[in-house]
Amino acid sequence: MNNLVAMLWAAPRHWRYTAILLILLAAYGLGLASLAAPNAQFGVAAWWPAAAAAVLAMLVARGWERAAVAVLVVLVSVASNLGGGRSLPVALGFGLANALEAVVVTGILANRDEPARLHTVSDVLRFTVAVFCGAVTIGLIAASTLTVFTSATFGTVLLSAIPSHAFAVFVLIPLALVQSGRGRADRRLELLIQVGFMLLVLGIAYGPGRSLPISFLILPLLTWAAFRFGIKIVAWELCGTALVASGLTSMGIGSFTTGQAGSGIGTAGSFVQIFLVTYAGSVLLLAAELAQRDGLLDREREVVNALRDLNRQKDDFVSSVSHELRTPITSILGFAEELEDTTLDPDQARFTRVIVRNSHRLAQLVEDLLDLSKMSTESDAGQSEPVDVAALVAECVEELAPQAQTAEVSLTVEFGAGPFNVHSSASDLRRVLTNLVSNAVKFTPPHGQVWVGCSAGADGMLLTVSDNGIGIPPADIEKVFGRFFRSASAESLAGTGLGLPLTKGLVDRLGGTIDLQSDGRTGTHVTVALPRDPALAGRSAAGRAGTATVLRRPRRGFVGRDAPNVG
After folding, report:
1. Which of 93, 116, 94, 96 minimizes the C-alpha distance to 106?
2. pTM
3. Half-sphere exposure of residue 410, counting CA atoms within 13 Å on the CB side?
4. Can you give the three-state secondary structure of 119-142, one letter per residue?
5. Beta bridge mates, 452
6. Percentage of the chain with pLDDT > 70?
7. What is the SS3 string spanning 10-38?
8. Could you tell me if 9 and 59 are in contact, meaning their C-beta atoms sit under 8 angstroms apart?
9. How many CB atoms lie under 10 A from the CB of residue 391?
10. What is the CA radius of gyration of the chain?
11. pLDDT tens digit string along 220-242?
12. Which of 281, 409, 413, 472 lies at a 20 to 30 A Cα distance from 385?
């Protein structure tokens, strides 16, 4: 909370007291100047900036200090009114009125344990209510005082005092309450241009002989400031506009004095005060809303950056732990396999097989975690080289044939139209195929079928893996590529939920796309589209999307050339 009131409120006591005394001295001088102005009417000054000084002194004070400041405001106001030629009863009444106004404004605007501010929409709304209540308070007391001790009319004085004090507080106090900060360097030239236009329009709108509607030209410029430069600049421009407009009006110049000869300059001054307070309230609300939005955006950026940093730390941690786990797992697996080759009784052999099987699972999990960690920090695929995809598919199917035989699943491969050569990473592509085919076999019940297809698309290769297994519920299809997510249909089977996320990461790294379709009952169909050259992946994305469904599920029982059909 970096504003003038907050800094003085938090300052050491002797500095705070010094600031309060200086502000009260300023209030005394401003009071004398207002009474010396030639346009005072009905016993009420046309403008009373001393009210803003009294409120500021109260806002800077803390706790019990505010009661003492209120008493000082009474004394200063009485002294300035006496110095301006008012009678003692009127000076006493006005002194009490000024102090009560400051107490009302401060009581609504500031909490006891923290300084006031003007940064959010709720702050501006509270400030508006506080100023209105304070102005009504002093208006009622001032009107009553002058009605009792002079021949003034209560209603006339009331309608003159309220805008005089509300205008002073609403225009001057925001300068001490808005959050200070360094402006954006890239908008300094724009700010100079905006200020130049502001001065030009003020001269035009409030120059001699202008009609009332032209005064509204100032609103677009204040709105410009609210959108581009923040509430601090808006507060200063509102103050400058108020001083120029009210000053010219007090001299009988400007649109508010045109046609007002019968009413007098004092009435014109009240009109311009009401007009500018309306502008100030509207533009401050807009600036506060925009500042609040910018603050939320800044906090969101900070949260996003913090989450990215946490994600990086998590990846570093996973990578470090996985590397540390790899060595003991390798030792366990190696000695267990050695033990498996020795002469063991049936129970020992069974125990050893369990150790070997679970060691393999743990080793695979560690490898998957390492691969996922690398994908989070590396954007390039493995070494790019010419790859015969057909040969790679045949090799993968041959390697997974024992797994299919053990699961009693028929594994079939079909090759469509060629050519089958691409420029890609053979190791990444092999991992993609292995993961997809292994997944299909694992989630297909005994006597089921898995089909692997390979065909050339318009500008790349299409690989398909289909099965008639348990499938994936449609509601889970968008989630299966998330890390550690496991579909409800797969909860009964062993797995970690890393296979598909790893596969998608590899496909993305290869510059391709992956599409998964399933109705949750009759199996799953996965299509991988790969560019012939990753450098052309972006340019050919639309073509891949248009041809992603060309290769459909192969006919059951069909065996492609040079491909095994395991049943």
Report:
1. 116
2. 0.58
3. 13
4. CCHHHHHHHHHHHHHHHHHHHHHH
5. 413, 465
6. 81
7. HCCHHHHHHHHHHHHHHHHHHHHHHHHCC
8. yes
9. 13
10. 40
11. 888 888 888 888 888 898 888 88
12. 413
